[in-house]
Specification:
Elements lengths: L1 H9 L3 H16 L2 H21 L7 E7 L4 H12 L3 E6 L3 H9 L5 E5 L3 H6 L5 E7 L8 H12 L20 E7 L6 H22 L2 H7 L2 H7 L4 H31 L8 H7 L1 H17 L3 H18 L11 H7 L3 H15 L3 H30 L1
Parallel strand pairs: 1-2, 1-3, 4-5
Antiparallel strand pairs: 3-4
Helix pairs in contact: 3-14, 8-11, 8-13, 8-14, 8-16, 9-13, 11-13, 13-14, 13-17, 16-17
């Protein structure tokens, strides 16, 4: 055996090796799908990581509930907004309106200024401003909270002049009381569970179904199916129904293990509502893989296309980084992705007791996305057969 290896090394030919390398290069060059993925995916990655991801999110949507309207409170709100961490989008709303906005993921912070704030401030009674945070959102506990603590010393300095100068000692003239909502104990598992379930389902089902059609074509089985009088739509639909059942088995397994066995999440909603409400997301995950399978010529191409489609869902859905901490263009893309809405549905059912209306408001973008993929799949499959 050793002699054979030595002989192989002796007979090594650089020209033959380069010929093989040239053949592979020409193969890639002649395959626009592979070439496009090799170029597009790195560009997509550098764009998303460089511009869309923000480790210290700013301009987070914020609502203000003010029971005291004075120069002090107005200056405090202006100073908070000037930090660029708080984007005051809802000012002068009621407490219930603000909680509804927080529950439906339209804001992440609520600032509540109590009655008689100005009177207690002037009397030196150190009033408290309440800052409520949606702690079920990953990564939201960042620079904004540090800025809130600094504002206790800096926000009203230009107001505390003359006879009020005594209110600027080392201790702050007022305090910011931070209250965590929907994840009071700041448990990392609680904030990550909705995203983990959605991403696991997306990656698993998309990867499995990305090989379904291309395997039939490369294996030569597609001719047998067509000669048996099956219509293209029937083939796609039959495979979809099979993996739909697989998807529900996987969802039930992942949800049960993650929610009850590992993280011991106290669900506000029911497991039945979770199963029913995630049907469009499971369907969209399956169709993502089927689209990749129909567009690809080889299993490798199918995997690469599926990965390229999944990547934005991982980075722009709010799974790891706060959704509202991303630039506006990244949020626009994220709102088109089913994973974004699936994470909101999961978080709403687990922690916020979402109503049917709240769930339906997150469902329709997923349904539109799935319908588009169905049309692309049928068109691509027919073109592939032709």
């Amino acid at each position: 055996m050793l002699n054979l290896r030595i002989a192989a090394l002796i007979n090594f030919s650089l020209s033959r090796t380069l010929a093989i390398a040239r053949k592979e290069f020409l193969k890639i060059k002649q395959d626009p799908t592979t070439l496009g993925v090799l170029i597009a995916v790195p560009v997509l990655q550098i764009a998303l990581f460089g511009y869309a991801i923000e480790f210290f999110p700013k301009n987070i949507p914020t609502a203000v509930v003010s029971y005291d309207n004075s120069a002090f409170t107005r200056n405090f709100i202006q100073t908070m907004q000037s930090t660029n961490y708080y984007g005051i989008q809802y000012a002068g709303v009621s407490e219930q309106e603000a909680l509804d906005l927080l529950k439906t993921n339209k804001i992440n912070y609520i600032i509540t200024i109590p009655p008689l704030f100005t009177r207690d401030l002037i009397r030196g009674n150190t009033p408290e401003i309440l800052l409520e945070v949606d702690a079920s959102t990953p990564g939201i506990m960042g620079g904004a909270l540090q800025a809130a603590n600094e504002l206790q010393y800096l926000a009203l300095n230009r107001n505390l002049v003359g006879s009020l100068d005594f209110l600027k000692p080392q201790t702050p003239p007022f305090r910011v009381n931070i209250h965590n909502v929907f994840n009071e104990n700041l448990t990392t598992a609680n904030s990550m569970t909705p995203g983990l379930i959605a991403v696991i389902i997306l990656m698993s089902l998309s990867t499995i179904t990305s090989m379904v059609i291309v395997d039939e074509i490369t294996g030569g089985n597609i001719e047998v199916l067509l000669n048996s009088s099956f219509q293209p739509f029937e083939i796609v639909l039959g495979k979809f129904l099979c993996y739909l059942l697989v998807g529900y088995v996987q969802l039930l397994t992942v949800a049960y293990v993650g929610i009850f066995l590992l993280f011991h999440v106290q669900m506000k909603g029911s497991m039945l509502s979770l199963m029913l409400s995630l049907f469009p997301f499971i369907a969209s995950s399956l169709m993502t893989g089927l689209v990749a399978s129909c567009l690809a010529k080889t299993p490798v191409d199918a995997f690469q296309i599926s990965s390229a489609i999944i990547l934005p869902s991982l980075l722009l859905s709010g799974f790891v980084f706060p959704f509202y901490g991303m630039p506006a263009w990244a949020q626009s893309i994220g709102n088109l992705l089913p994973a974004t809405h699936a994470i909101r549905i999961l978080g709403g059912i687990l922690y916020k007791d979402f109503s049917l209306i709240n769930i339906l408001n997150q469902e329709w973008p997923i349904l539109i996305y799935t319908l588009v993929l169905v049309l692309i799949t049928i068109f691509s499959f027919k073109r592939t057969l032709n």
